[in-house]
Amino acid sequence: MSVTIKDVARQANVSVATVSRALNGHPNVAEEVRQRVFDVATRLRYSPHHAARSLSSRRTQTIGVVLPDLYGEFFSELMRGIDQVARERGLHLLVSSYHGNPAEQGAALRTMRGRVDGLLLMSPFLGATEALASELPPLPVVLMNPAVAVEGLAAVGVDNHGGAMAMVRHLLEAGHRRIAFIAGPEDNFDAAERLRGYREAMAQGAPDVAPRVLPGDFGEASGHRAGKALLEGGTLPDAVFAANDMMALGCLFALGEGGLRVPGDLALAGFDDVPLSRYVHPPLTTMRVEIAELGALAIRRLLEAGTEAGGEDVGPRLLQPRLVVRASCGAVPDTG
Questions:
Q1: Looking at the whole model, is its pTM more than 0.85?
Q2: Disulfide-capable partner of 227 in 42, 72, 149, 251 (CB 3.0 to 4.6 Å)?
Q3: CATH assignment of 160-290+322-329?
C-alpha cells in the first residue's frame, strides 16, 4: 500500500496540517518539528501527490543539484547543460558536492530539504543503493548515471558498456591487438561498465590476448602514474584505452616524458570527449558523450514530472556515445 500523509502525521505525532506545512516550507513550523516530519517522510518514502506539481508552481523557483564532485571538465560540462535549461525556465540552482565520499552523500542531500522544488542527483557508487533510498528527501528526483535504478525514480545515463566495446573494436580494426586499459575507481558504476565493455570486446575480438588493466581514479594524476607504469613495465602494448579523457591526457604526458611518440610508438584513446581532448597534441581519439546534453536531459525530465507526458515515465533514458577518431589512435581522423 502507498504511504499517505496521515501515516506520516501519525508517526511524527503531529497533525496532517502540520505535515503539509512542514513539507511545503511554511515558516510557522518549529525547526525541530520540521526535521522530525522530514525524517519520518524520508524513512517511509512518502512522496506527496503535490510534489511533482510544485515544479509547475515553482514555490522556491530552485532546483537542487547534488554531485560527487565539482572539479574537472566533465562536471563543468554537466552543469553547463543543467544551467542552460534552468535559465531558459527562469529557475535557480542550488548545487552541492559530497566530494566523492559516499558517506557524505546524505549530508549533501539534507541541505536540500525545504529549499528546492526538485532534485538532480548523481550517485555512481556501487553498493550504496539501500542507503541512497533512505536518504532521499520527499521531492521529485531524477538520478544521473545511477549505479542501480531506484524504484519509482526517473533516471538518465550513458551506455558506458556499449561505448567501451565500440572503442576496443575500433582499436582492433586499426590493427592494435595488445590493448591496455586504464580503469576508473573500483566503486564507480561508470568505471565498472567501461571495464566490462573492454573485457568483453577483448574476449570477442582478441581471445588470445590477455587483458591488461592498470588502476586509475578518473584523475589526470592516475593516468600519469599508469603511463609511467607502462614505461617501466617491459613490453609496451600496441594501444592504451583510458576509461576517461583526463586519465588519457595524464598518460599522454607521461609517455611524452619517457620519449615515446603517440601514435608512432603506441596508440591512445579516451572516453567522454571533454573539450580539452581536441586541443592536445596529438588530438585524442575518444568516445563522445554529450555531457551537457546529459545534464539538460536530466533537468528536462525533472520538469516533466507531474505532467501528463512525463508523470508516469520513470524508465531510464540512455545516451549513446559516439566514436570520434582523431590522430592519437593512428587511424585516419574524422571531422568530429
A1: no
A2: 251
A3: 3.40.50.2300
Say if residues 314 and 152 touch (Cβ distance below 8 Å). yes
Q: Give the single-character DSSP code of 166.
A: H
Per-domain boundaries in the chain: 1-46, 160-290+322-329
The pLDDT tens digits of the residues spanning 171-195 come to: 999 999 999 999 999 888 899 999 9
Model pLDDT for residues 82-107, shown as the tens digit of each residue? 999 999 888 899 998 887 777 787 88
Same fold across 1-46 and 160-290+322-329: no
Read out DSSP for 48-104? -TTTTHHHHHTSS-EEEEEES---SHHHHHHHHHHHHHHHHTT-EEEEEE-TT-GGG
The CATH homologous superfamily of the domain defined by 1-46: lambda repressor-like DNA-binding domains (1.10.260.40)
Three-state secondary structure call for residue 142: strand
Residues paired with residue 157 on neighbouring β-strands, in sequence order:
318
Rg over CA atoms, the chain: 23
